[in-house]
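Structure Section — protein described below
Tokens — whole-number codes for backbone shape
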Amino acid sequence: MINWNTIDTVLLDMDGTLLDLHFDTYFWTKLVPAKYAEQLGIPVDEAKAIYTPLLAKTAGSLQWYCLDFWSEALSLDLVSLKREAQDLIRFRPHAEVFLKALKNTSKTVIMITNAHRDTLSFKLERLPMAHYFTQLISSHDYGYPKEHPQFWQILESRINLDKQRALFIDDTDSILDAAKTYGIAQILTIETPDSHKPPVNTGGYKAVKDFRDLLANEGTL
């Protein structure tokens, strides 16, 4: 799947790629609606009906990923609320094995995530992994989500990226499309971002089923 001799920089998403997306699915579709409904004193379905249009309106924007925005919009302390479900935060199968293997190479390994900095810090507390990376980048640092061309332009200038010798792994088609348009040479997606859901439509991108598969290729790590 990958010839590692052609890769200098590895760009990795966090949620749904390295970490099981089940935490985020549960948080946004179960826990937040329940707490919002409780706060308003209405049924959960009614609470969902109130904020679902706002979710749709902000999809793909930086607001959609911003804890500050949603905490204010819903009048909920979402950072504290995340702690109620923190036991669901876990690596996808063998993701940490993959990170350890990358750590033992000379490659530049960078996390690029749309997650808010507060979310990133919270998850790093739960699963210490910062030491596996050369750098941890939140799209909030740049003012543009990964779906936006400007994110990639800023990223290149900040990290001196050679996109012809880069690998990017993410679980969101629109983000992969943006990376492809920008010119990232090698792109992979994730077959099962959420362990509690069936495999997703990968949109034509090659999908990682098991991170160990990436460790047994030509030019192996």
In short: The beta strands are 9-12, 108-113, 135-138, 166-169, 186-190, 207-208. Residues 22-40 form the longest helix (19 residues).
